[in-house]
Amino acid sequence: MGLDRAWPAVLLIVLAIVASVAIGVGAERRDRARAQALARRALDVLLYVLLPIVVLTNVGRLDVTAGVAAGIGLAYVTVILVSLTAWLITRRMRLPGPQAGATIVTAMLANTGYLGIPLAGVLLGPSAVPAAVAFDLVVSLPMLYLGGFGVAAALGADAGESPAARLRAFLTRNLALPAAVTGLLLPTGFFTDGVVDASHVLVLLIAPLGFFALGVTLTGESQDGELDLPPAVTPPVAVAVLLRNAVAPLLFLALSTLVADVPDAFFVAAAMPCGLNALTAAHGYGLDAQIVSAAIAWSTVLALIGAAIAGAILT
């Protein structure tokens, strides 16, 4: 697909994001209680239904070649270093657990799925999509249901008081983890191509549901129910956005100089904004939703501007 014909796809992605957020904002303003209930239900669907199904049906289809293995290793080093940096900064800032967890999780998780994969196809061509999918499934999803949910369970306000209670919350609210293990244990051909293709349709539902919840959260967490546009850039939000949008891609770029033939799609994935699933982790374990929603909003805008500039350069 040429860039001249692919840009309508980027436009559709942007319009879908804007429309979903706008619907969430409008719903919250019309009927706060009902909108917030719908947002919680949407996040429950993401957490307990869509994500486990997508992981279960796709993780067994992975074909990780030696050519991408080094890039995946560098991606893990990058995410771990960024997450540790966020943790150290939040300790210096003496943030309460839910705020610290929100900052760490949003810096850790990148939107490599329903934003990174289509952008890789648009900017680099269809041949880049398999590598983008591999990055999302091998790096981002494990970081979500091990790292993101683990941090949220350790620091969230709704995960319990004792370490045992937090561990129990991590295991019982994290259905993607057993889904991933099951998917790896099942034979490669257990799920037919039709089932896998159907799960890809479910992926398309994740973004509208998630950005609807984001719109509700942005409005519901703001002063007097009025949408702060742009959202307030508090110190935790600034830390998360800076680490995710600047430090992570630059660090991955620097590390990649040590390895040959890192797929170009991995650089796109490393530059993706704060992942929408950070809001799911915040909902599931009680992290600060205002920090998470503001960081997602700001980092997504900045990433889309960066994608537009990259597209203009590549055209």
Based on CA atoms alone, the radius of gyration comes out at: 18 Å
User: What is the number of helices?
Assistant: 13
Tally of domains: 1
- CATH fold-level name: Na+/H+ antiporter like fold
Q: Show unreliable segments.
A: 1-5
Mean pLDDT: 80
Describe the structure.
- This protein has 315 residues and is an all-alpha fold.
- The protein has one domain: Na+/H+ antiporter like fold.
- 78% of the residues lie in helices and 0% in strands.
- It is built from 13 helices and no strands.
- The chain has helices at residues 3-30, 32-58, 66-93, 97-108, 112-124, 129-155, 163-172, 176-185, 193-220, 235-256, 264-270, 277-285, 289-314.
- The protein starts with a helix and ends with a helix.
Keywords summarizing the entry:
mainly alpha; 78% helix; 13 helices; 315 residues; Na+/H+ antiporter like fold; disordered N terminus
Short précis:
78% of the residues lie in helices and 0% in strands. With 315 residues, the protein is mostly helical. The protein has one domain (3-314): Na+/H+ antiporter like fold, CATH 1.20.1530.
